[in-house]
Amino acid sequence: MGIDDYGGGPQPHTDVLVVTTNDVPGHTVEKVIGEVFGLTVRSRHLGSQIGAGLKSMLGGELKGLTKTLVETRNQAMARLIEQARTRGANAVLAMRFDVTEAADIGTEVCAYGTAVVLAPQA
């Protein structure tokens, strides 16, 4: 399986630029809107847990769990972008992911960053 099989390939065009850097070369920040985030919590699928348990004994990638985590991160990112768009931003700077266990029943994924309005430098 390649990266595209997990949904990690090129993302659809969006009007909100998301970067992990603090700035974007050739652009200036005209306005800082503030923190935005996208949050989702996913429960574990019983079948993938059993498969993961067996696979962990033998070693190797847990493909079912990898796929689920990528889908979860993509959903968190989509929610981050929607919140930024709703607040009038055209970019999110310093985007990060935070992943934690949620009460031993699932995984919480939060995408967060700083919503801004960028303009090309003259």
Describe this structure in words.
With 122 residues, the protein is an alpha+beta fold. It has a single domain (3-120), classed as Translation Initiation Factor IF3 (2-Layer Sandwich), CATH 3.30.110.70. It is 30% helix and 38% strand. It has helices spanning 46-58, 63-86, and strands spanning 17-18, 27-43, 91-102, 106-120. The protein has a four-stranded mixed sheet with strand order 1-3-4-2. The longest helix has 24 residues, at 63-86. The protein is elongated, with a radius of gyration of 17 Å. The protein starts with 16 loop residues before the first strand and ends with a strand. Mean pLDDT is 82; it is low at 1-11.
- The outline comes out as elongated
Give the biggest beta sheet. Answer: 4 strands, mixed
Mean pLDDT: 82
User: Largest sheet, order of strands side by side?
Assistant: 1-3-4-2
For this structure, the CATH topology is Translation Initiation Factor IF3
If classified by CATH, what would the architecture be?
2-Layer Sandwich
SSE order, one letter for each helix or strand: EEHHEE
Count of DSSP H/I helices: 2
Write down the domain tally. 1
- Residue windows where pLDDT falls under 50 for at least 5 positions: 1-11
Strand content: 35-45%
Alpha-carbon Rg, integer = 17 Å
Percent range for helical residues? 25-40%
Distance between the termini: 44 Å
CATH H-tier superfamily: Hypothetical protein apc22750. Chain B
Number of strands: 4
Please identify the oligomeric state: single chain
CATH class, anyone? Alpha Beta
Classify the secondary structure makeup into a structural class: alpha+beta
